[in-house]
Write a structure and sequence with these properties.
Blueprint: H1 2-17, E1 30-35, E2 38-44, H2 53-61, E3 69-72, H3 86-93, E4 97-100, H4 112-119, E5 123-126, H5 130-136, H6 138-146, E6 150-158, H7 176-188, E7 191-195, H8 196-202, E8 217-221, E9 242-246, H9 251-258, E10 263-266, E11 269-270, E12 273-274, H10 276-285, E13 290-295, H11 297-305, E14 311-317, E15 343-351, E16 354-361
Parallel strand pairs: 3-4, 4-5, 6-13, 6-14, 7-8, 7-13, 8-9, 9-10
Antiparallel strand pairs: 1-2, 1-3, 11-12, 14-16, 15-16
Helix pairs in contact: 3-4
């Protein structure tokens, strides 16, 4: 029975992966309904505001759902949001058993969905392939439990660890296939963030161009509002999707930027700079769950030191520029290896001529 449960849950996980990057602020969820050893219904959550995975699967199963077993990658919801509770739909369909890969950490659910099912006489189980299910929705889990977005830092660098030459030239370090991978990652994140110095130096668009997909919101960390009004992130339709995070509270200056459609996010300050944790908390309150940090090195260094980066993607290109180039993290005060900031490498792979290392900082987030 356990082997069969695992098999059907693996199918539900595969379905859930189809929704990754498309459901925020909701999690990606998959569901499989089995009757007498045959899959009679399956579905996944396709977009926020639309039917949940269980509803799609129940619609496919029809009357065959009565007395069936249900495999779902996340505990069915028990509250009314943009859609009715999935627990009610499962009860009304007369299913026999519900197996959830993990409980829902959302305080509005948090065990309530499984309790509602059990109260209705439906057999329940939780924890089947939980690690795999949690890996599907790290941003959702972090945001609903901490209020902060899941932050991924991405950088392209040479073999000797430089993100730009001594003159600041960084185009193009990585190969075309790597750049396409980054644009695919952008399309799956709610927001992409850079510091104002990156905007001034490179004038990036921060949009999705090399693959099909939606462009994320753009967040510019600009403590004193130095972003040029001619910057591409403020031009045309891009302005409406740009947020300037600042400590500057001058409404006259705000209005100059707001003419382009940009939003001003006034954050707490620390030593004249945006308090990054306060900024992330405010972004989380706006429903931003995943944030791709793309530079510069001072912003990345500050975020790393404060334990605000969850995951890093280092794209190494087969090039060397020497000791005068720029490093991915602007850190000071580290004089010995005992002070080095620790990482855990979780994946290494090739993309054409580049090597991509995925690593997680092992630095705790600053406490309030």
């Amino acid at each position: 029975m356990i082997d069969m449960d695992s098999r059907y849950m693996q199918r539900a996980l595969k379905l859930a992966r189809k929704g990754v990057g498309r459901t925020a602020p909701n999690p990606a969820v998959g569901c499989v309904i089995v009757k007498d050893g045959v899959i009679v219904g399956e579905g996944w959550h396709r977009k926020a505001g639309g039917p949940h995975a269980e509803v799609h699967a129940l619609e496919m199963a029809g009357r065959a759902a009565r007395g069936a077993d249900v495999y779902v990658t996340l505990e069915p919801c028990c509250h009314t949001g943009k859609t009715p509770p999935c627990s009610d739909a499962l009860i009304a369909a007369g299913v026999r058993r519900v197996v959830a890969a993990m409980g829902d950490p959302n305080p509005q659910v948090n065990g309530g969905g499984l309790r509602a099912l059990a109260h209705a006489g439906i057999e329940t189980a939780c924890g089947m392939l939980e690690a795999e299910a949690r890996a599907l929705n790290p941003a959702f889990i972090k945001q609903v439990t901490t209020g902060l977005p899941y932050v991924i830092y991405k950088c392209a660098m040479t073999l000797d660890g430089k993100i730009a030459s001594a003159a600041g030239d960084s185009r193009w370090i990585s190969c075309e296939e790597s750049r396409r991978t980054v644009h695919r990652l952008r399309s799956r994140c709610d927001a992409v963030m850079v510091g104002v110095d990156t905007v001034i130096a490179d004038d990036p668009q921060l949009t999705v161009r090399h693959v099909r997909g939606r462009s994320p919101l753009r967040v510019i960390v600009d403590s004193t509002l130095r972003t040029p009004e001619s910057a591409r992130v403020l031009s045309g339709p891009l302005g409406k999707g740009t947020i300037l995070a600042t400590t500057e509270s001058n409404n006259i200056i705000h209005r100059r930027y707001e003419k382009s459609g940009a939003a001003i996010l006034v954050c707490e300050g620390h030593d004249g700079k945006v308090d990054l944790k306060d900024m992330l908390r405010r972004l989380g309150q706006q429903g931003i769950q995943s944030l791709l940090l793309e530079g510069g090195s001072r912003l990345a260094g500050a975020a790393l030191e404060q334990g605000l980066i969850d995951e890093c993607l280092f794209f190494y290109a087969p090039k060397v520029v020497g000791s005068d180039g720029f490093s991915p993290f602007a850190l000071t005060g580290i004089t010995g290896m005992a002070q080095a900031l620790p990482f855990k490498i979780v994946d290494v792979r090739r993309i054409a001529s580049d090597v991509v290392v995925t690593a997680r900082p092992e630095i705790p987030c600053l406490q309030d």
